[in-house]
Amino acid sequence: MRSNPLNFSREVRLAKSLYRDLSRNALRSLTELLHKTELSLANGDIRQAGNLSRDYSQAFVDVAVAGDESIERAQTALEAAAAGLRADSAWLQALVDGPRVLGIQEYGPIGCTLRLQVRTAPLRQEEVCRELRRRVQLEFQRQGIALPNFHGMDSATAFHALDDIEKPESAG
């Protein structure tokens, strides 16, 4: 049996197509193993192909919450927004599963990020995510939950605030 150190059967399944021409396909991995790595395959090397988004599309909505807010309150508000979308008959055709609150995705210098997951009918994920974000915003306003305040931060800090990027301290 041939050695497969990069487990291509798993990695290619979790890859996104960059481009295709008549002789080659370029893929970019969506996993950490090949993170930010491109893979080029000759068409003759591809033995099997499948469409993993044929039955549904999946999307994630990340919501930043101010550091001094209660995580439980924020999660309850997200659950309410998700339940409202699930109960809306206008969106039933677009939803396959969820939306559901997965929990804390990451911590940052001004708060944390909570993540929701939703599975939709193929190619409907963008419109469903926009509607879900709208409902989350309305629910946060209704419950008085503050979003992180980016005012007073320089643009580089604000841009990376939720990526939890720490700048090295200057030696002195």
Mean pLDDT: 74
Please indicate the count of domains: 2
Main sheet attributes: strand count, strand direction, barrel closure: 3 strands, antiparallel
Helix content: 25-40%
For the record, the CATH class of the largest domain is Alpha Beta
Q: State the assembly state of the protein chains.
A: single chain
Strand content is 25-35%
The general outline is flat
Radius of gyration: 20 Å
What separation lies between the terminal Cα atoms? 57 Å
In CATH, the topology of the largest domain is named Alpha-Beta Plaits
Query: Which CATH architecture of the largest domain would you pick?
Result: 2-Layer Sandwich
User: How many β-strands, per DSSP?
Assistant: 6
Order of helices and strands: HEEEEHEEHH
Question: Would you write up a description of this structure?
Answer:
The structure is a single chain. The chain is 28% helix and 30% strand. By secondary structure, the protein is α+β, with helices and mostly antiparallel strands. The protein folds into two domains: 8-45, no CATH class; 57-143, Alpha-Beta Plaits (2-Layer Sandwich), CATH 3.30.70.100. The strands form two sheets. A three-stranded antiparallel beta sheet has the order 1-2-3. Strands 4-6-5 form a three-stranded antiparallel beta sheet, covered by helices on one side. Helix 2 crosses helix 3. It starts with 7 loop residues before the first helix and ends in a 12-residue tail after the last helix. The model is unreliable at 1-20, 28-35 and 154-172 (pLDDT under 50).
